[in-house]
Amino acid sequence: MTTLDAELRVGRGAFTLDVALSAQPGEVVALLGPNGAGKSTALRALAGLLPLTDGHIALYGEQLDSPADGLFRPAEQRPIGVVFQDYLLFPHLSALDNVAFGLRCKGLRRAAARAEALPWLERMGLAEHAGRRPAKLSGGQAQRVALARALAVRPRLLLLDEPLAALDARTRLDVRAELRRHLAEFEAVAVLVTHDPLDAMVLADRLVVIEAGRVVQTGRPAEVARRPRTDYIARLVGLNLYQGVADGRRVTLPEGQVLATDEELTGPAFVAFPPDAVTLHRHRPETSARNLFPCTVAGLDLHGDRFRVDLAGPLPLAADLTPTAAADLDLTPGTRVWAAVKATQTHAYPA
Amino acid sequence: MRSARSLLAATAVLALAAALTACTANNPPSNNGAQNAPKVDGTVTVFAAASLKESFTELGKRFEAAYPGAKVSFNFGGSSALAQSIVSGAPVDVFAAASPATMKTVTDAKLTGEDPRVFVRNTLEIAVAKGNPKHIGGLKDLGGVKTALCAKEVPCGAAAVTALKAAGVEVTPATYEQDVKGALTKVELGEVDASLVYRTDVKADAAKIDGVEFPESAQAVNDYPVVSLGKAPNANGAAAFLGYLNSMDARRVLTEAGFQVP
Amino acid sequence: MSTPRTTPAPHPRGRRRPRGATRVPAALLLPALLGLAFLVLPLLGLLIRAPWSALPALLTGPEVWQALRLSLISATAATGVSLLLGVPLAWLLARTDFPGRRLLRALVTLPLVLPPVVGGVALLLVLGRAGIVGRWLDAATGITLPFTTAGVVVAETFVAMPFLVISVEGALRAADPRYEEAAATLGASRLTAFRRVTLPLVAPGIGAGAVLAWARALGEFGATITFAGNFPGRTQTMPLAVYLAMESDPQAAIALSLILLAVSIAVLAGLRDRWMSTP
Question: Are residues B75 and B16 in the same domain?
C-alpha cells in the first residue's frame, strides 16, 4: 500500500512545480535540489501551508488536497509534524511547553500535555533542559526539541525542512547520526528537504532530485550517486558512501571488505569519500593508498569536463577522471582496473 | 454680477461717507472721522469676542472700503483667552470683549489707551430646534428637557446663571459648554432640546434654529466693551476703527445682527 | 518575552571616556539642544509659575479629584476598549490580504491626523441622539451616549485606538508569521495560534501601544468636549477642567496641569521598564 501518494503541481508566476512523490510506510524520502528548485514549495504544499493549483495529495488513502474536487485541508487539519529549518520554537514557551503545544491543541489539559511531552524530551536526552526557553538552548538542543515537538503529535507524515542546515559542522555530525536513529524508529513516512547531498544520502532511503520544479532523478542514494543523470546530480551527489562497523581506523563492511580511514571510531559508522578521491590504474599500483580494490568498469559518462566511472567489484564505487586520464587508461565497459583511495581522503563518522 | 457688486460697494461707500459725517456731527469732541483724521493705512489688528464674528467680518469689509490702503485683520475667540494673550504681549490695536470682566484683565494690566466704551449689548434667548417641537415657552420649561448651558467661566454662562436666578428656576443641564457656539451646535445637531445662547447667535443661525425670548433676559444683559490698546502698533488705524464702530452704518449692521446698540 | 529586569548600568559620568570619542557635530548638536529646550521649557514654565503656596487650597477642591478620577477611569476604559477592538483590527491589517486593505489602513489612521474636534462632530453625527446609529440606539434601548461618561470613553477611544492599532500592527509585521505556520502544523487553529503564539510574541508592542493610547486618552480634549460635553463628575475630564479654569482662573489651570503632568510622568515612568525596551 502506498502511504503517501502525491502529484504536487503549484504555479507561482513564472515558476511551476510539478513533482510526483510516493512513499511506503517507514520510508524516508529526501527531496534534494539546488536553491530555488522548488523543494520548499513542495514541502509547504505537503504541510498544507500552500494549496496546490493542480494534482493531489493523499495520505493513507485519504485526500488532503485535491483542487479538482475543491478539497483542501489546511495544515491544522493534517496529521503531520514539521521540523522547520530554523526550528521556529516558540520563544515565549519552555522546551517542555513547546513539545506540549501540539498536544494541547489536540485538547489535552496543560498537566496532561506536559506529562505526555516529557518522555519525548527524555528520549532526546533533554529532560534536564525541559524548563529552558529556546533562547537558552544550543543549536543541537533546539533541533532536538523541534523534532520532539513534531513527533509528539504522532504524525503520519513527518516533514523536515533542511533540518541540519542551521548547525555548525561539529554539531551537525552528532545530530545527523541521532536524527538518523529517530527516523529509523519512525514508522510513518518522512519527507526530508535538503540541498546537502550528505544529509540526503545518510538520512534517506530514497532520493528525489529536483531541478527547476521537475524531478530529474529518483532512486536509492548509492544508485543516484553512481549513475547520475544530470551534471548537476553528478556534481552534487558526487559521493561514495558505505555503512559498516568501525574498530579504530578500520571500518568493516557487511560483505567483509575493510576500509581504512583516518578517524578513530568504534561501533556502527559511515565512510564517505568523493569520486575524485578515487584513482584508477590498469595494473596493481605501487601506491601508499591503503584502500585498493580490483574492479570492473560498469559504465562511463561524461559530465561537464569530467568522466564519471561506475565501477563494479567487491565494493561498488564511483570515480571521477579527467578526459585525458580516461583516454590514457583506455577505459571501456568491462575493462578491469585497480581503484585506490587514500585513507586521508575518507570521512568516517558514527552511524 | 460684477457690476451689481461694484454698484453695491459704491452705495456702501456713499452710505458710509454720509454716516461718517453724521457721526462726526453727533460726537463733536471726537476727531475719529475720516475727513480730518490723520491718514489711515496699514493693517489694523482687532481681537474680538467670538460672538462678534459675523458682524465684525462685515464691518471690516466696509471699513476697508471706506479707508483704501487700510486692512483689518481679525482674531476671533473666547474673550478670556484673547485677554490672556493680550496681557502676554500680543501686538493688538483694538480689543472688543464680550464682558466687562474679561476686559478688566486688560485694563488692570494698564494696557489700554483710554477707558473702554460699551458699544453693544447682547441678551440671551433660548435656542430650540426649528419649529420648537418641545413647545418651550420660557426658562421654567428648561427643567423638563435636555439643556445645554455655557460654563459659568465664560460670559454667556455667567449671564445664564443671572437669568436663571432672576427667574427662580433651577436647571441641571446635560453639559456646560466651553463657549456659546458649542451650546448652539448641540441644539442644531439635536443632541439637546434647548440651550441658553445670545440673541445674536440665534439670528446668525436662523436657518437652522429658532429662538424663544423670555422676560428675565432683561436682567442678564451682557455689555460688550471695546478699547484701543496703549501700545497699538497702528494707533491711527485703531482710532479710525473705533470711530467707525460708532457710525450709523456700523450701528445698523450691529442692530441687524441682533445686538442692542446704546 | 519581556527582558528580565536588570539593575541600571552605572552612570556614564562615572566612567572616564576617551576624549572626543562621542563628539557630536555642532550642526546636529545645536538644533538638538534647541529642540530639547523647546520641549522642556514649557514644562519648566509650568513648574516655575506654579502658585506653590496656594496649591494646597487649589487642589483640595472636590472638583479637582472628581475630574482626575474621571480622567483616570475613562482613559483606562478607553485603553481597554482599544485593546479589545484594536488588537484584532491590527491583526487583520497585518496578516490578511484583501482588496482595499491599504485604503482601510489609511482610514484607520485617519483619526491620528484629524482634528479631534472634527472627530467629536463626526461621532455626534453617527452616535448622537439624532445620529445615524444613535437615533436607532435611542429608539431601541433609550441609551444616548453624548453627555455621559460612556460618551467620554467613546470619544477617547476614537482618538486613542489608532495609536494602539499602528503600534500593534508594526509589532505584528515585525513578528515572524512563520511562527503561526508552525503552530498550524501542530494543529492550532488560526484563533489558537493567534492567542497562544502571536499574542505573547507581540506583547511588548501591545504594551507600548496601550501606554500610548492611554496617554493620548488622558490628554484628550477636543473630541471629548464636542461629543460628551462638559459636566463635572460625569464628563468633565482634567483637560476640560484645565481649559475652563483658564477662562477664569489661570492659577487654578496651572495647578490642574501640574497634577496631570505628575500623573502622566508617574505612569509612563512606571511602565517604561516594563514595556518600552528602548535602551
Answer: yes
C-alpha distance across the termini of chain B, in Å: 37
Q: Which is it for strands A240-252 and A214-219: parallel, antiparallel or unpaired?
A: unpaired
Of the residues A210, A236, A262, the one at which a domain ends = A236
**From the candidates C132, C145, C225, C244, which should be mutated to test the interface with B, based on the most B CB atoms within 10 A?**
C244
Are C247 and B175 within 8 A, CB to CB?
no
Q: What is the mean pLDDT of residues B120-124?
A: 92
**Residue of B128, B145, B171, B191 to mutate, interface with C, max C Cβ within 10 Å:** B191
Chain B hits for C247, CB-CB cut-off 8 Å, are 78, 80-81, 151, 153-154, 178
Contacts of B146 in chain C (CB under 8 A): 129, 147
Beta strands in A24-171 (DSSP E): 28-32, 54-59, 62-66, 71-72, 80-83, 157-161
Please give the Cα distance from C258 to C237 (Å, whole number).
14
Residue A96 lies in a domain: no
Which domain range does residue A313 map to?
A: 240-350
Q: Subunits touching C (CB < 8 Å, at least 3 pairs)?
A: A, B
Instruction: Nearest chain A residue to C187 by CA: give it.
Output: A76
The cell numbers describing A94, all together, are: 519552555
Count other Cβ atoms within 10 Å, centred on residue C73: 14
Does A337 lie in the same domain as A263?
A: yes
Which chain C residue has its CA at the smallest distance from A49's CA? C181
Q: Which fold has domain C60-275?
A: MetI-like fold (1.10.3720)
Task: List chains adjacent to chain B, taking adjacency as at least 3 C-beta pairs closer than 8 Å.
Answer: C
| Same structural domain, B50 and B174 | no
Report the C-alpha gap between B228 and C217 in whole angstroms.
42
Q: What string of pLDDT tens digits covers the 351 residues of chain A?
A: 678 999 999 988 888 999 999 998 889 999 998 888 889 899 999 999 999 999 999 999 899 999 999 999 999 999 999 999 889 999 999 999 999 999 999 999 999 999 999 999 998 889 999 999 999 999 889 999 999 999 999 999 999 999 888 787 777 777 777 888 888 888 889 999 988 887 888 788 899 999 889 998 899 887 787 677 777 776 676 778 788 898 888 899 888 888 888 888 888 888 888 888 898 998 888 877 788 899 999 888 887 778 888 888 888 888 888 888 888 888 888 889 999 998 888 888 776
Answer yes or no: do B174 and C147 touch at CB < 8 A.
yes
Residue A95 within any structural domain of the chain: no
Q: Which residues contact C50 (CB under 8 A, 6 or more apart)?
A: C254, C255, C258
Q: What is the pLDDT of residue C90?
A: 93
CA angle B231, B232, B233 (to 5 degrees): 110
Residue pairs spanning B and C at CB distance below 8 A: 67
Nearest by CB to A49, from C181, C188, C192: name it: C181
C195 touches chain A (CB under 8 A): no
CB–CB of C244 and B153 under 8 A? yes
